[in-house]
What we know:
The complex is a heterodimer of chains A (84) and B (146).
Chain A: H1 3-14, H2 21-25, H3 41-55, H4 61-66, H5 70-82
Helix pairs in contact in A: 1-3
Chain B: H1 3-9, E1 21-25, E2 29-35, H2 55-75, E3 82-92, E4 101-112, E5 115-123, E6 129-140
Antiparallel strand pairs in B: 1-2, 2-4, 3-6, 4-5, 5-6
Amino acid sequence: MDKVTLLATIKEVVAPYTKNPEALATLNEDTDFIRDLKINSANLVDVVLDVEEKFNIVIDNDSMEKMINVRSAMEVVENKLAAP
Amino acid sequence: MTITTILEKLPYGEPFLFVDTLEYIDEQKVTGSFTFRPEMDCYKGHFKGYPVTPGVLLTEVMAQIGLVCLGIYLTGGPEGMSFGLTSTQVEFMRPVLPGEKVTVTGEKIYFRFGKLKCRVMMTNAKGEEVSSGEIAGMIVQPVRNS
């Protein structure tokens, strides 16, 4: 999967959980889930579960803790897709 | 874990304990019941001259039985940990009057990364659906005022 598609898919996943439409509109690799998108920690769990479903991967606790921004989420997904 | 142990580990006390007993529990599902005592304070004002159980208390019964009891069963109710309510999405179909016994069934949707989300349904003594929805909570460190 190319980076553009990956970024667009992550944007789609986080959209229902964000409280900041402006940060969503300008979402990029540096966008932070909590600081920029204002997603609370409980909903962050749902974001991770939706990412799992969307990409058909399983995310472990260590990877979940790394997923604090769009870049790290993309890395986790790419790694899981490369070595399931 | 036995039902008696779960009831002992519940963090609630009077007047905010809304679990009388559990009828069943396993890793997926819990069933329990509570009877709203007619002398409860809320009936004096909800409503004036026409006592009906407030929806927030129906939600609380659903959360205590359908979410917290299952959470204690799944985690073993570790010392020093607590559950924080994170979301409720509940519909109410029928009123519950003073003295009515309700039965709550909670089914796990997921328990991942410390968050438990359940599909919870409440029925009255006739078996009619009173309310239903989805409730979620997370394991948190207890918050205490210093």
